[in-house]
């Protein structure tokens, strides 16, 4: 059978294996591996014959080369009859591992280690089995044992570093650092140091590891760019700037690198240089519009710190909008800027352009709703939100805005459904609870209204909006007025200048018959820009105080603000409440 081996080196290795095993048999066992139970002890009758053992071992190796691991195991077991060398047990362990019999593989590997505790190769076999069977801690224990034998064993250091990556990333980093300290710059270890350090927020260490990788591969352009970005995360702007300046010379066609460079220059206070690069990108017809928008966004991000950038951004977007009218992202950014400027007309127009091009951008529908609500264009708000809900029927915000629109139009029956939908999506949202409670009250569902107010106050007992609204609904019905007054006082303490809250507490006093206090609060509300309802309330107070002329004067002012109020018209005509 030995004739099947064409490589003399292989044979010599096998002979060394057996000779080496013979020399270790006399060593005392200090292995950390637990002894096998009596029923599992490996008992092979031995008729010592080194030559026969080698013959069967070589036969097993040949079967392994053919992929016939079962036959290999039988040959190895025959070899054990003639020589119980730990190397044979190790070979059997490897073969069992190959055919998926991991329990037997573990037993054989442990026996090899018991016979030769200082043999690192045998422990490595056991590590491989444990890793394959996801017994991570056992693999770690065995690798730690290897390090006790050889404190700088590369395989053990790297194995432990890998196994600790998820559970103990800091410990993993220690092992990768030790590899670099003792074996010099090693690509895979440096790569892991860079990744783990970045994940742990150790951006400077990550960048340093990347710099060492660049020393190994100085022509790696993408690695240099990644290093620059990592230095940005580390706050080391000057180092990032230096790398990006080199990259701009090496590859001027890399627009993405230029955009990063713009951001770094702005952070460095070199606005003019940043704008030059920005202009070069915007004027380059070969650059795609979405990439140009990334450059615009780089300037927009810095506009919070430097408002002088906003006109440049607006001008650039206007140019892109004219050139690319169907690019929704351009309109989106214009809408966002207009919203921040409180220019609701422009915001509405640009967000409307977004949904015309791409109706699946839900944020644009929300932007339309907010702009129309702020402009108090409630009929338009209802129309647009109904269209938006055709695309996004389960969106909380669109349902809320539709309900608010109906409520502000006094179409409270219609407001119920979208507000209930919004509440089902977010049952603890105070805005929905408060609005829906008012809607229920307006349609005569007083018990539902009170229940919602009570629910809201359980969630947030000091919410001034809920306190005010609950107080007002009770005062309108003339119920539990002392409780209503208590809530109104809590609300006004939090927002003493709010005209709605001033009107509420004044109206509670009105219902309690304290007309002088009612006048004091409601007059303040009118002076702070109160609504038609607040002005009408002041007229009612003057009427109760016996000043009919003043009462009619304020009722007429209220009618000017709300000419559709038929009940108020009748009140003026009668000249009394």
Can you describe this structure in just a few lines?
The chain has 577 residues and is mainly alpha-helical. It is built from 32 helices and no strands.
Biggest sheet character = none
CATH topology of the domain at 495-577: Serine Threonine Protein Phosphatase 5, Tetratricopeptide repeat
Mind telling me the C-alpha Rg? 40 Å
Label the CATH architecture of the domain at 495-577. Answer: Alpha Horseshoe
Total E-strand runs: 0
The averaged pLDDT comes out at 91
By secondary-structure content and strand pairing, the structural class works out as mainly alpha
CATH C-level of the domain at 495-577: Mainly Alpha
Question: Would you kindly provide a written description of the structure presented here, covering whatever features stand out?
Answer:
- With 577 residues, this protein is mainly α.
- It has a domain at 495-577: Tetratricopeptide repeat domain (Serine Threonine Protein Phosphatase 5, Tetratricopeptide repeat), CATH 1.25.40.
- It has 32 helices and no strands.
- Helix 18 (328-340) runs antiparallel to helix 19 and helix 23 packs antiparallel against helix 24 (430-442).
- The longest helix is centred in the N-terminal third of the chain and has 17 residues, at 8-24.
- The radius of gyration is 40 Å and the shape is elongated.
- The protein starts with 7 loop residues before the first helix and ends with a helix.
- Mean pLDDT is 91; it is low at 1-16 and 19-41.
